[in-house]
Design goal:
With 117 residues, the protein is mostly helical. The chain has one domain. The protein is built from 5 helices and no strands.
């Protein structure tokens, strides 16, 4: 169960690294605009805000990787909790899709980490 929990934590970290790339580097490109359903005009006007969001997603990924490298479940659970809260807030305020992309993987990883303890 420990390996599965670690794999799920790593998956959540990878998701957030991908979100970092989308928001910081691809926001105004076709791939980024498609991922978030943006017009070229809106993407251009909001690219600085998106880069800031991407940076925060990078911090979440870094925290998860840090928890994995230290084999510290408390750190993993803290950052997974942050991802879960961000996912729930994003689903309530921005897009229901965030519930499935962020919150659901986080809650599954949280359950796996708790079961592996």
């Amino acid at each position: 169960m420990t390996m599965l929990a670690q794999a799920l934590v790593a998956l959540v970290a990878l998701i957030h690294l991908y979100i970092l790339v989308l928001e910081m580097f691809l926001w105004t490109k076709p791939q980024g605009r498609k991922a978030f359903g943006l017009t070229a005009e809106f993407a251009q006007a909001s690219k600085v805000l998106a880069a800031n969001q991407g940076l925060y997603n990078g911090f979440l990924a870094a925290g998860l990787v840090w928890g994995l490298l230290r084999a510290d479940t408390a750190t993993q659970l803290f950052f997974l909790g942050c991802v879960l809260v961000a996912g729930l807030y994003g689903a309530a305020t921005a897009s229901r899709k965030i519930l499935y992309v962020q919150a659901l993987p986080a809650i599954i990883a949280i359950a796996a980490v708790l079961l592996a303890r």
